[in-house]
Amino acid sequence: MEHFFTIQGEGVHSGTAAYFIRLAGCDVGCHWCDVKDSWDATIHPVMEIEDIVEHAKESGAPIAVITGGEPTMHNLAELTKQLKKAGMDVHIETSGSSPLTGTFDWICLSPKKRKPPLKEAYAKADELKVVIYNKDDFAWAEKNAAHVSKKCELLLQPEWGKSLKMMPMIVDYVKKHPCWQVSLQTHKYMNIP
After folding, report:
1. Sorting pLDDT into bands at 50, 70 and 90, what band is 80?
2. 170-193 residue pLDDT tens
3. 16 exposed, middle or buried (CB, 10 Å; 0-12, 13-18, 19+)?
4. Contact present, 190 and 7 (Cβ < 8 Å)
5. Which one, 80, 136, 164, 173, has the greatest CB density within 10 A?
6. DSSP label of 70
7. 8 Å CB contact between 127 and 12
8. What global pTM score does this model have?
9. What angle do CA 162, 151, 131 make, to 5 degrees?
């Protein structure tokens, strides 16, 4: 769908320079998604992997973040191989709803109720980032946290449109459950992509 050099705005690596590769196509379809344009892969031009990697390499970014849509709908083996060969760390942000292909330095699993993660996704997650849209999402977060490894970072992130309402609940929850951390969409505060 698009590719650009920016600052990672969410999760453990928030604040880090990163080259984003947003792949089109999504079969999850969250009603609060902030990139609904990514859902239909047929409306976006197809790019050669070599061209994507060349743009990423030229940016000078130390990290390439593959996101979507739902990036695991694509076979990512060749893309990640070439990004690694170009000297970049490769991260992915996924719902984990399709099989993971490729080689990654960091896997951010952001589970969605509409199409939950595959069992195999939990074992590979370095970061579990759960979007909090309403108070029922805390139980969803704990359900998912029960399946990840002990080394996995646990983050709760307010859905942007509900952040003012949900933030006090998230703060209270993290204070009572300090294994969790708060994640913010800092790129929206900075007004950058």
Report:
1. very high
2. 999 999 999 999 999 888 878 888
3. middle
4. yes
5. 80
6. -
7. yes
8. 0.94
9. 10
- Kindly write down the DSSP assignment for every residue of 121-177, as one continuous string: HHHH-SEEEEEESSTTHHHHHHHHHTTS-TTSEEEEEE-GGGHHHHHHHHHHHHHH-
Using a 10 angstrom Cβ sphere, with 0-12 exposed, 13-18 middle and 19 or more buried, the burial of residue 188 is middle
Asked if 18 and 91 touch (Cβ cutoff 8 Å), the reply is yes
The residue type found at 6 is T
**The 106-109 sheet, strands edge to edge:** 2-7, 17-22, 63-67, 89-94, 106-109, 127-132, 153-158, 180-182
Six-digit token pair at 32? 């609060």
How does 154-169 read in b/e, with b if 16+ C-beta sit within 10 Å?
bbbbbbeebeeebeeb
Contact 108, 93 (CB under 8 A): yes
Q: Which domains does the chain have, with CATH numbers?
A: 2-190 (3.20.20.70)
Close Cβ partners of 121 (under 8 Å, ≥ 6 residues apart)? 94, 96, 97, 100, 107, 109
Quick: pLDDT tens for 142-171: 999 999 999 999 999 999 999 899 999 999
By the 10 Å C-beta count (0-12 exposed, 13-18 middle, 19+ buried), 136 is classed as exposed
What gap in Å lies between CA 181 and CA 171, rounded to an integer?
9
Cβ contact 100:94 at 8 Å: yes
